[in-house]
Design a protein that fits this description.
single chain; mainly beta; six-stranded antiparallel β-sheet; 1 helix; globular; disordered C terminus; PP1_regulatory_subunit_3; Protein phosphatase 1 regulatory subunit 3G; CBM21_dom; glycogen binding
Length: 151
């Protein structure tokens, strides 16, 4: 049978976003589900809380930014109080069945508030997941952003 496809993160595991990074960017990718599924990619984002309306979206593409989709992130219940006061959001990116081995999914996170528009785009490189073949459809290696080490 043909190898099963999997999405493999093509960026280093940055661990939990630091308080300094969150203060500087106001929005950070917190973690991806592990492994990213061949049909969808799930993750969480942290934003620096502020009063007023806010919008958190994930912009992603499968064709090197010839076109893109913006998907709203959904607020999660508040966690324990921390410094800085961060809010958490979850997102799901739908992966088309036409994705082939060697292709890539690129994404970045946008946060809009009355204070402005902020992006986490992996330091200008975007976050990238590569579509790879996997004999037997085994799990992806443990390299997703912010994922805890394997047991």
């Amino acid at each position: 049978p043909p190898p099963a496809l999997r999405l493999v993160p093509d960026f280093p595991d940055g661990g939990e976003p630091s308080a300094e990074r969150l203060r500087r960017q106001r929005v950070c990718l917190e973690r991806l589900g592990r492994p990213p599924a061949p049909t969808d990619v799930r993750g969480t984002v942290r934003v620096l809380g502020c009063p007023g309306p806010k919008e958190v979206t994930v912009r992603y593409t499968f064709n090197e930014w010839l076109s893109f989709v913006d998907v709203p992130a959904v607020p999660l219940p508040p966690a324990a109080a921390g410094d800085p006061p961060a809010e958490r959001y979850s997102f799901t990116l739908c992966v088309p069945p036409s994705l082939r081995e060697g292709s890539a999914l690129h994404f970045a996170v946008r946060y809009r508030s009355p204070q402005g528009e902020y992006w986490d785009n992996n330091g200008g490189r975007n976050y990238t997941l590569r579509c790879c073949g996997c004999p037997g459809g085994g799990p992806a290696p443990p390299s997703a952003a912010g994922s805890p080490p394997p047991p």
